[in-house]
């Protein structure tokens, strides 16, 4: 059942969140027992063991599988681009969507390499959100609509969901969401994005500080509407739908993690089924991961977005499950235990 099918407004959605499923502790414990019985010193596969147990907990199966990995890139445009915060022009968003559809972007190659089925959802690109320094970026109705569109694309049969985004200017949106959710100074959350120089970063920090001050105190879906964009809301919708269906999620870098920060402000446990594919070179990402208490799977100096780091981490997740399901136990292989 979709968590978004019956709700009529954001307050009702907030209330419905309490009914979302939790991790299956029994399946997780059984997976942990299996890890202890496999032909290796206990713990020697490090985080691969934890990843296998995490997948067991969310799939509710001691022998979790990835036969079908779904990847989705959500694209949106942002009114805050009027503040001169982005080096590239806004039309690059729609141009990159065409590139995704033609198979020419980095994410196309990375999904092929890791075996994920990619789809792209363009969210009203000809109608940017409002400039958040002037008012809320989105109305409550627009926010709910984008949440629904994010939820609707999730394939009930997917065994893992890889999420990415495309939206010129959205490194500024991400910094604003992170600053509003976790405090500090605006400059702590601002980075180069697609190549802003020192003056550009100072400009971004000033815009973020102004936007966050204008919407001070907003939390949850109100925060998402005030400072987010359609792709951020769609990412939240997809994360919630995946949770309702017990599908584990691989989030990409700084922009995807910041997109779901409004959910964290409602209840940190709403992100319990989410893994972080990689830590971005955007300096705010490490700080954000600290704030939400999650360790990235990879650290490769990347700062692209599109879901690129999440798609790469899918390869690690697949390897973790190959070991978990394919290795012999000490008893099966006749290897002496300690
Ligand atoms: C050609 C191109 C491809 C991209 N793919 C992802 N992004 C990334 O850069 C954007 C955020 O950076 P900023 O806030 O500086 O605009 C997002 O669209 C993000 O996905 C791209 C950006 C460009 C230019
Ligand atoms: O980490 C990210 O998500 C990111 C960083 C810079 C540009 N686009 C995306």
UniProtKB/TrEMBL annotation:
<dbReference type="Pfam" id="PF02277">
    <property type="entry name" value="DBI_PRT"/>
</dbReference>
<dbReference type="InterPro" id="IPR036087">
    <property type="entry name" value="Nict_dMeBzImd_PRibTrfase_sf"/>
</dbReference>
<comment type="function">
    <text>Catalyzes the synthesis of alpha-ribazole-5'-phosphate from nicotinate mononucleotide (NAMN) and 5,6-dimethylbenzimidazole (DMB).</text>
</comment>
<keyword id="KW-0169">Cobalamin biosynthesis</keyword>
<dbReference type="InterPro" id="IPR017846">
    <property type="entry name" value="Nict_dMeBzImd_PRibTrfase_bact"/>
</dbReference>
<dbReference type="GO" id="GO:0009236">
    <property type="term" value="P:cobalamin biosynthetic process"/>
</dbReference>
<protein>
    <recommendedName>
        <fullName>Nicotinate-nucleotide--dimethylbenzimidazole phosphoribosyltransferase</fullName>
        <ecNumber>2.4.2.21</ecNumber>
    </recommendedName>
</protein>
<dbReference type="GO" id="GO:0008939">
    <property type="term" value="F:nicotinate-nucleotide-dimethylbenzimidazole phosphoribosyltransferase activity"/>
</dbReference>
<feature type="active site" description="Proton acceptor">
    <location>
        <position position="306"/>
    </location>
</feature>
<comment type="similarity">
    <text>Belongs to the CobT family.</text>
</comment>
<dbReference type="InterPro" id="IPR003200">
    <property type="entry name" value="Nict_dMeBzImd_PRibTrfase"/>
</dbReference>
<dbReference type="InterPro" id="IPR023195">
    <property type="entry name" value="Nict_dMeBzImd_PRibTrfase_N"/>
</dbReference>
<comment type="pathway">
    <text>Nucleoside biosynthesis; alpha-ribazole biosynthesis; alpha-ribazole from 5,6-dimethylbenzimidazole: step 1/2.</text>
</comment>
<keyword id="KW-0328">Glycosyltransferase</keyword>
<keyword id="KW-0808">Transferase</keyword>
């Amino acid at each position: 059942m979709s968590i978004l099918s019956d709700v009529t407004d954001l307050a009702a959605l907030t209330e419905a969140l309490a009914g979302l499923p939790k991790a299956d502790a029994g399946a997780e414990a059984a997976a942990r027992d299996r890890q202890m019985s496999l032909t290796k010193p206990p713990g020697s596969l490090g985080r691969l063991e934890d990843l296998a147990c995490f997948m067991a907990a969310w799939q509710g199966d001691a022998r979790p599988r990835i036969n079908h990995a779904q990847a989705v890139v959500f694209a949106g445009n942002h009114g805050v681009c009027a503040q001169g915060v982005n080096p590239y022009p806004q039309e690059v968003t729609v141009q990159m969507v065409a590139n995704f559809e033609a198979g020419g972007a980095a994410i196309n190659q990375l999904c092929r390499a890791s075996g994920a089925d990619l789809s792209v959802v363009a969210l009203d690109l000809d109608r940017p959100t409002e400039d958040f320094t002037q008012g809320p970026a989105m109305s409550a109705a627009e926010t709910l609509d984008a949440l629904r569109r994010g939820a609707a694309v999730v394939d009930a049969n997917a065994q893992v969901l890889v999420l990415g985004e495309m939206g010129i200017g959205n490194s500024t949106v991400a910094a604003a969401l992170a600053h509003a959710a976790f405090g500090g100074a605006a400059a702590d959350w601002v980075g180069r994005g697609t190549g802003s120089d020192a003056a550009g970063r100072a400009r971004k920090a000033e815009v973020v500080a102004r936007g966050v001050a204008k919407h001070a105190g907003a939390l949850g879906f109100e925060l998402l509407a005030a400072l987010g964009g359609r792709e951020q809301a769609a990412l939240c919708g997809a994360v919630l739908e995946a949770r309702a269906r017990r599908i584990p999620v691989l989030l990409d870098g700084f922009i995807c993690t910041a997109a779901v920060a409004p959910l964290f402000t409602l209840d940190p446990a709403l992100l319990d089924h989410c893994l972080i594919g990689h830590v971005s070179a955007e300096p705010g990402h490490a700080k954000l991961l600290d704030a939400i208490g999650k360790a990235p799977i990879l650290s490769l100096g990347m700062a692209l977005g599109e879901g690129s780091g999440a798609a790469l981490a899918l390869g690690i997740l697949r390897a973790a499950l190959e070991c978990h399901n394919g290795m012999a136990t000490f008893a099966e292989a006749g290897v002496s235990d300690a």
